[in-house]
Specification:
Blueprint lengths: L19 E2 L1 H9 L1 H8 L10 H17 L8 H4 L1 H14 L11 H23 L4 E15 L5 E16 L12 H6 L3 E7 L8 H19 L5 E5 L8 E4 L3 H19 L37
Parallel strand pairs: 1-3, 4-5
Antiparallel strand pairs: 2-3, 3-4, 5-6
Length: 304
């Protein structure tokens, strides 16, 4: 058997053979289906510089480690911010990544930013996360049925990772009523999904609202009930350290439609590039894109 991978197999789960749909795949496919295809095939070039993501990665790692501990000392995240920065920077170099500091004091300024961020984050965790059952960095792969190309129910996998999932189990009214089928039908755990962002932009949540609705649908698939709340934890936004909402049925219908559209395009083998060339100059998959392949019999690459 040949070790060569069949084109398009990157879209499918190796174990189940089901199409995988993540939030990032939805966003990329809606931008350009060719880009989504090449990304799934592993043909995305490495980021030239990970500096833009560095402070977010450091704070995210600090929160994950804090939430994995039972009784850490006060200000644990702040105390270990230097160690986490060193480890994150070493990992970039180990994976042959590029991290370019902007100027001589840039690393020092990033360190101060991360320190302030986790100091602000600590009381937020104490209010939104720690009082409940919770799971940080929850990786998921759950089935959902959608209409196939023949309109027959077809299972796909929703995949990805949530920053934090919390669960609150309201107490039943009393011992006698806990056997009442109506009470049992109304009683259900309350799930909330929180996504951490280190932005200072108070309007940034608008760019991530759809991602949170995607997580809401994932919770419905995993637990049989939707979330009661989804939101962003944004410690560096003055006056709004977190923001949340409850997805509406319209939100869910729109997201479901987007999931189906992306999955059906994969089923149909449609990975055509977008018509225009906006943003193509900076695309991480440009070198493998059919739009920019050399003309047959020549070494000429089309520019537009």
């Amino acid at each position: 058997m040949s070790g060569k991978r069949e084109p398009g197999r990157g879209h499918y789960d190796a174990e189940t053979g089901l199409i995988k749909v993540s939030w990032s795949k939805i966003r990329t496919a809606e931008e350009c289906r060719q880009k989504a295809f090449l990304t799934a095939e592993g043909k995305k070039s490495k980021a030239p510089d990970v500096r833009i993501f560095f402070q977010g990665n450091v704070v995210d790692q600090a929160m994950r480690r804090r939430l994995s501990m039972d009784h850490p000392p006060m200000h644990w995240m702040a105390q270990y911010i230097d160690q986490i920065m060193d480890e994150t920077e070493a990992k970039v170099k180990e994976e042959d990544g590029v991290l370019r500091w902007k100027h001589r004091d840039d690393r020092k300024e990033v360190r101060q930013f991360c320190y302030e961020c986790v100091m602000r984050l600590e009381p937020i965790l104490g209010q939104l996360i720690l009082p409940y059952e919770y799971q940080p960095a929850l990786r998921f792969s759950t089935k959902m049925n959608i209409p196939g190309l023949d309109d027959q129910p077809t299972p796909i996998l929703l995949v990805g990772e949530m920053d934090v999932l919390t669960c609150y189990k309201p107490p039943l009214p009393d011992i006698e009523s806990d056997q009442d089928p109506i009470v049992q039908a109304l009683w259900r755990p309350e799930y909330r999904v929180w996504d951490l962002k280190v932005t200072k932009d108070a309007s940034y949540w608008r760019k991530t609202a759809a991602q949170l609705v995607f997580y809401d649908i994932v919770c419905s698939c995993i637990f049989g009930v939707p979330t009661v709340e989804v939101g962003l934890i944004q410690p560096m936004v003055e006056g709004y350290p977190w923001i949340s909402f409850r997805p509406s049925e319209e939100d869910r219908t729109q997201m479901y439609t987007r999931i189906v559209s992306v999955a059906q395009a994969i089923m149909a083998g449609d990975h055509s590039p977008k018509a225009d060339s906006t943003g193509c100059s900076y695309c991480e998959t440009r070198n493998a894109c059919v739009k920019y392949a050399p003309e047959p019999g020549t070494k000429t690459m089309p520019l537009f």
